[in-house]
Amino acid sequence: MASRAIQSMRSAVPRLVQRQRALQTPMRAFSASALRQNRLAQIPNDPNFDFPGLSSTKVDDSDVRALFDTPYAPTSNEPTGLFTLGPLTHPKALRPLTQRTLVHARAIVDRIARAKDDPSGRELRLVVKNLDRLSDLLCGVIDMCELVRNAHPDSRWVKEADNTYEALCSYMNELNTDRGLFEALVATLEADMSPPLSHAEKQVALTFLRDFEKSGIDLPPEVRQRFVELSDSLLVLGRTFLSAASSGPSPQPYIEIPEPEKLLHGLGSGFINSLPRRGGVALVQPGSWESQMIIRFARDGEARRLAYVGNSRAEPDRIAVLEKMLSERAELAGVLGKSNWAEVALVDKMAKNPENVEGFLSSLAAHHRQQALGDVKLLQRLKSASITGMAPPAGARLPPFNAWDRDHFSEQYVSALAPASLAPLAPYFSAGTVLRGLSRLFTKLYGISFRPANVAPGEVWHPSVRRLDVIDEQEGLIGVIYCDLFSRQGKPPNAAHYTVRCSRRVDDDDLAGDGLAPGWDSRFGPGLETEGDQMPGKEGRYQLPIVVLTTDFGTVDEAGQPALLGWHEVETLFHEMGHAMHCELLCGFNADAQQ
To answer: Which of 53, 230, 483, 513 is the most buried (most CB within 10 A)?
Structure first.
C-alpha cells in the first residue's frame, strides 16, 4: 500500500512498491506467423460462440465482444482529462494538484489532532470519518499516479507522476508516525460518545491503531524520524529496481541465436523473419516476449537454452539496488525492534512469523515431492520421445531434464490433453469472447453486467484502452473498468490490476470544518473530488470506483482479426478481473459500510 495507517480502511488498494504481479508472461499472438495461423484455424467461426454453459441473458452484450475484437482508431488529444477528471489535462497539471492535496491534507490532519480538545465532543465523533476523508484525498492522487507511471506511454506523464507519487507517499510515511493522529484515535476509542461508534467504525479505528503501532509510534522522536527516512528511501529504491532505472544502467546484450532458420524451427517463418539480424545471427532482447516464445515453442533444445540463459543474465545495476534495499530493510526492522524484515512483513499476516512460513513450505515440499518427481519423469519421457521419435519403454534411461525444457514440454503435455479434457472448449478465445463470457458469468452470480462506453478525448492514455461501465440490475452504474489489454511498444509485460479510486459517500463530508478559508484553492486549481452520484435505494451520494486492468495480449491486426488468447491467458484475465470485481462489488455495494 501507499501507506499502512492511512489506507488501512480502504479495500482493494495498490501495494507500496510493486503492484504488478508477474503471474505469467503472457504470450502475444503474432499475426502472419505459423502460430497465429494455427490459432485462427482453431477458433470457431460462429460469431455467437461463447463459453459452454453461459447462455445469453436478457442483456444485449454483443457490443461487449465487438468492443474488444475490432480495430481501434486513434482519438483526438483534446484536453478533457484522464478518467474524465478535469485537472488531468497535461503532465504539469500534477504539480499544482500535488500542492493542493498537501495543503488540504495538512488541514484535515490538524483538525483530527485538535479533536480531543473540542468540549462538545463533536470533533472526536468525526475522527474516523475524517481519517477516511484524509485517506481518500491522498490515495485518490497516489493511486492514479501509480497507474500513470506504470502504463502511460508518454515519458512526461511518467516523470510527473513519479514526482507526485514520491512526494505524497513521503508525507504518508510521516503520518504513520504522527502522534497527534494517534492520540486522537486513542481518545476516540476511550470516549463515551453519543451516538456510540458503530461496530464497523470501531474495527476501522482498531485497525488504524495497530498500524500506528507497527510504524513505531511509541518510539522516541529521533527514531521515528529514522523510520520515515528509511521508508522514503525504500520507496524510491523499489521503484528504481522495478524500472531498472538505477544510475547509468547499460542495456542487456542481445541473446544471439545462430542459424535461426534451423534452431527456431517450429516457430513459423513470420516470427523468425521479424527478428533483427547481425550477419546470420538472430538477435533477441532478454526478457522479451520473443524470448518467452522461443523457450515455450522452439523444438531445438539449444535455442531454448540460449534464450533461458540470456533471460537469466545478471544485471549489476539492479543487483546493487537490491542489495541496498536489503540493507535498509534490515535496518528498518531493527528500528522497529524486529530481528529481520520477515518479522516486519508478517506481523499482521495469517502466518504471523517466519518460523510458521518455513514450516508450512517445508511440509508442502515434503508432501508434494513424490508427485513432483513423477511430473518431471513424465516430461522427461516426452523429451525422450521427441528425440527418438517413439515412446521410451518402461525402465529406459531418460535424458537429462533442464530448466529450459520445462515450459516447452509442459506446453506439449497440456496440448496432448486438449482432445480429452478440453473437448468442449476452443483452444483459443478472442479477447471480446472472454469479456462477454465474464459479463454473462457476473450476471448469473451477482446480477451485474458490463456495458461498453465511449471514451471522451483525453480520457485514456492510449487509443487501445477500452472502457466498461459496470451495471447492477437494481442500482444502475456502480463503477468503471478501463481495460488496457493489448500490447504496444514499451508497455510493461506483466498483468496487473490498479484501483485508481475507491467508492465512498461524499455528501456528508464536513468541508467547512477543515478550517480552510474560502477560495483557498484558487492558486492551485481544482482537485479530484467529486460531488458523487445517487444510487437507487441508497441514501446520499457516492463517488464511484475506477479500476484499470493491464495485460500484454496480442492486438487486433490490420485485417480485423481479433486478439486471440490461449488458455493460459484466459486464466490471467479471469484472475485480474477477480481483483477488479472485488473492488467493484465491495466498493460499489458496501460503500456506506466504510463510513
So the answer is: 483
